[in-house]
Amino acid sequence: MGVSDVDDKRDSDKLYCKRCKNFGHWTDNCHTWGKDQCTHCSKYNHASDDCYFKDKPKLIKKEKKKENSRKRAKNEVNEANTAESDHSYAAIEEVGKTTSRGITFDSSKSGQYFNFDNKDVANYSINDESTLYYDWLADSATTSHITNRRDIFITYEPIQDTPITGIGDLQAQAEGRGDVNVYALYNGIRYPICLCSILYVPRNRHNLLSLGCWIAKGGDFLGRRLALISKQGNVIANGTLTSNNLIKFRFYFTKCPSVPCINTYPSTTQLEKDWNTWHRRFAHIGYSGLRKTFDKKLVTGFHVNRESPMPDCIACTEAKQSVIPFNKTGERKTNPGELTHIDVWGKYEVTSINGFQYYLLMVDDASRYVTVEFLKSKDQAAQKVKNYFTHLELQGKTPKAMWIDRGRKFVNEMLLEWCYSKGMQVHMTAPYSPSQNGIAEHMNRTLEELARAMRLAADLPTFLWE
Q1: Whole-prediction pTM value?
Q2: In a designed cystine with 362, which of 341, 358, 371, 440 is the match (CB 3.0 to 4.6 A)?
């Protein structure tokens, strides 16, 4: 090995990367930039979901630190107190013994007394927070929810002669029954829960959540963590496995009992709103549509108070008002040729084979006879109208009036002077009211549909619309 190789190796050993904790390169030149670090093994060559150590228990390394000799005596006293408290807790919890066939419980009353000891778990006078939490143990054997806290009941009824029998025929006495409003936090969302007909057992150490009652009320649970599922299919809480293989849930409640819990689950009586509220929530649809939706149960969670009134909505009146439609059928008091409804259709975007883009429509009021004249421009409409009325006169008819809109194709001095010289009346529609000339407008639509249907059926090009 030469001298230059030795120098390069020494220089590379001095390079240290603070990101991957390796030697040989600087932090700015690290190949791990832009890669996500695995949360389980802190490596960069794979994703966290694919890590081999994902389901493995993490080893906690305890680093030995130099202890001050002056604090050694105090630490020994604390360790002794901690060991004593841990020992008393273990004496209460570990009431079974492990065998090759599983876990067998002690049948003596002393072995089962841990369920009904005298520990005061309801004392929270030292806590000034307005919201407190406490734990519940999931139980598939109990037939009712059980709590040891009297202060959290929103409704309470004292009861007598209601014994509760446990393992080994050990009995405890329930002193009351009522409802409790709690809520669970899952993924930052608060889910209110109403537990009904809970038994109050002050000597019971743990609060028990009956899984049978939860299923009977429409709920469900799933998975190893015993995720609680509501009626709507939403996960509202996840359980935690304790050291003695029990599933524990953490529920919260409000310290002040005078404040009622709103929108609790599964009670839905407080979710009922009046018709006016649901009318605004459903984007101001009509009350008839709301009632139909409610009667057929088309929407989940649509709870309405049927006794509430259905007031008139001012916003709907202002936003949905429209012009009253004209009469669909009118009386025909004219003779053929006396009154003619005239309108010009176009401009069509495709020029016909003969170079037309407009047509003039003339409908006789009495006989509904239709006459169509094709136009290349709108200024040809006035002369076509004159030709039409001259033709009627030669056929022995007496033109008396015509019904037109206010377009410049008709309202011009040349056409008006010619009509007035013949003694004819000119009826014009109101501005921006084409519906007043409905006979001509409806005939335009009829002719368009017929022509379009024939062209599509024959598979003809668009320029043959004429």
Answers
A1: 0.36
A2: 371
